[in-house]
Specification:
Largest sheet: 5 strands, mixed
Oligomer: single chain
Number of helices: 5
Bound molecules: FE2/S2 (inorganic) cluster
Shape: elongated
Helix content: 25-40%
Order of helices and strands: EEHEEEHHHH
Number of strands: 5
Strand content: 5-15%
Length: 171
């Protein structure tokens, strides 16, 4: 079939609180739709094979790797990406602040997916143990940090979101 003859499907969804309507080819992956049609380039493509988690977004209350979801499967969904994490006035989310304060990133490539994943983790468990954090982010790979400061950043955010002072555990 010639490219011009590929039929497109209508999709409607909510992305970072905004209603989105678009026409997409049935084969279009959600990560490509977000990056190329919606210009949301926070979610990254690190592997395209569902291993790295750089493409993680929140979809209807679950962390998903958007390189393994067809856009048509997200029809009707409520999606959040890293672009929807800060407040409307630009105030950073506690997780973003935590990553900055605790040096939870180096190159930053994994960070958007890592933060979106951590956000869901903290929705489900407001006071996770270190082990629960490490298990919770085990689908997101970071080749730079060694994870220690990512764990601290998530602990910082958990404390801030619960209104208690963050105290680093003794090493
Ligand atoms: S790009 Fe999706 S998991 Fe790596
Ligand atoms: S900060 Fe570089 S991959 Fe995580």
């Amino acid at each position: 079939m010639a490219k011009s003859q590929v039929s497109k499907s209508q999709v409607s969804m909510t992305v970072n609180g905004k209603a989105v309507d678009a026409l997409v080819e049935p084969r279009t992956l959600l990560i490509h739709f977000l990056r190329e049609q919606l210009n949301l380039t926070g979610p990254h493509i690190g592997c395209d094979t569902s291993h790295c988690g750089a493409c993680t977004v929140d979809l209807d209350g679950k962390s998903v790797k958007s390189c393994t979801v067809f856009t048509v499967q997200a029809n009707g969904a409520d999606i959040r990406t890293i672009e929807g994490m800060a407040a409307a006035d630009g105030t950073l989310h506690a997780l973003q602040e935590g990553f900055r304060e605790m040096h939870g990133l180096q190159c930053g490539f994994c960070t958007p997916g890592m933060i979106v994943r951590a956000w869901r983790l903290l929705q489900e468990n407001q006071n996770p143990s270190e082990e629960e954090i490490r298990i919770g982010i085990s689908g997101n790979l970071c080749r730079c940090t060694g994870y220690q400061n990512i764990v601290k950043a998530i602990q910082y955010a958990a404390a801030k979101m619960s209104g208690v002072p963050f105290q680093e555990a003794a090493e």
